[in-house]
Amino acid sequence: MAKYAISLYEDLAKKPQLFQTIVDRAFNERYNTVLWKQYFQWDTTPSPDDMFKTIEVVDKGVIMADIAARFADVSQRDTDGYAYYAGTVPDLSHGYKENVADLIKIERLQSGLDGNAAVIRNLVSQIDKFVNGIHSRITNMAMQLMSSGKIEGNAGTGLSYKAKAPIPTTNFKKALTAVWTDTENATPISDMVAHEKYMRNTLGYTGALEWNINRTTLNLLLKNKEVKSYVLPVLLSANLSVLPNGMVTEASFQEFVRTGGIISNVRVVDEAQREASMTGVTTVNGWKAGSAVLRPAGFAGVVKYSSLDELRMVQGEQGVAIAYLEGGKVGIKRKFSVDNERWDTSVKSAAVPTLTQWNYHMIVDTLSV
């Protein structure tokens, strides 16, 4: 390691706690606002043996008491039940190498005016991209799961991974009058009202609900004839300004949602990820096109995770520096390869989003009738 005078790198390998300290200071709270955390939370405990089990309490709802004769036997009803689904927790990982040419550049950084500070900034910048890549993968899986009920694949490596939530088939709905791309004839507000009534009257859900749609679907709503007929009167009654030609903006639509009392809260999902494959890097979306999701308000589920035992097994080995983020759910390993004269850095996690109220998770295909 002494061939390149990068004292910080050598210290990282000799003093494991130094690497953890740098990671804590650089990344503390940095990833609190990643998209998936708006809809999911980390599970409270790791899943053993890389297998997850997600449990849902099935609320039977309130049933009227029987009219009975005095001192008669009491009718016995079922209590709330439990449902679950299980699957495997996939490994999520990628990394980078700092070869001879890279190490020479880093050596020059350290010899500059900023010294170790410049080396740390460079190191943090590189690691940040790969930690963000872990969160980007979890976001993609979370958006797939919410909008389609399943998670599929990893085209980047050729490995396949599939998981499916047991959403009842009757919870998959369609547009009722016309596809929502037909902004003249579609009736999205009426559709949403009808689907909420199904959630209440048929499924028996009594808590707060919310809709999740992507921005493409929102833009269709803003152009829709029926939506305008609902939104514009609300604006006028509140003495709010109306745009020329009765145009509806996102703000005015949300004002209608907030004050109209007709449909539940609408949250707009803005997401896109970059995925590498053998043919290059492409932009992908986890959210299924045309999906409008109605579900209990708040978090949609939890992210199941497994312990990173493979990192703990090599912790303390010569030339290895390991640090953790997210309470140990994301790990960073740096290892110096003497033979290849390079530093290898890998960022790893083992995680998968799961729904926790799948019996009350409704997915409306707005592109089909």
Question: Nutshell version of this structure?
Answer:
The protein is an alpha+beta fold. The chain contains nine helices and 17 strands.
The average pLDDT value, as a whole number, equals 87
Radius of gyration: 26 Å
Low-confidence stretches: 74-80
Number of helical segments with 4 or more residues: 9
Q: Characterize the main sheet.
A: 6 strands, mixed
Share of β-strand residues: 25-35%
The secondary structure category is alpha+beta
Basic shape: elongated
- Give the termini separation: 65 Å
Strand-and-helix sequence, N→C? HHEEEEHHEEEHEHHHEEEEEHEEEE
How many runs of DSSP E, i.e. beta strands? Answer: 17
Assign a percent range to the helix content: 25-40%
Sum up the structure in keywords.
about 375 residues, alpha+beta, six-stranded mixed sheet, five-stranded mixed sheet, 9 helices, 17 strands, about 30% helix, elongated
Secondary structure elements and their pairing?
Blueprint: H1 7-14, H2 16-27, E1 40-42, E2 51-58, E3 81-88, E4 91-98, H3 100-111, H4 116-148, E5 150-152, E6 162-164, E7 172-174, H5 188-202, E8 209-214, H6 215-223, H7 225-237, H8 250-260, E9 265-269, E10 273-277, E11 280-284, E12 291-296, E13 301-305, H9 309-314, E14 320-325, E15 330-337, E16 342-355, E17 362-365
Helix pairs in contact: 1-2, 3-4, 7-8
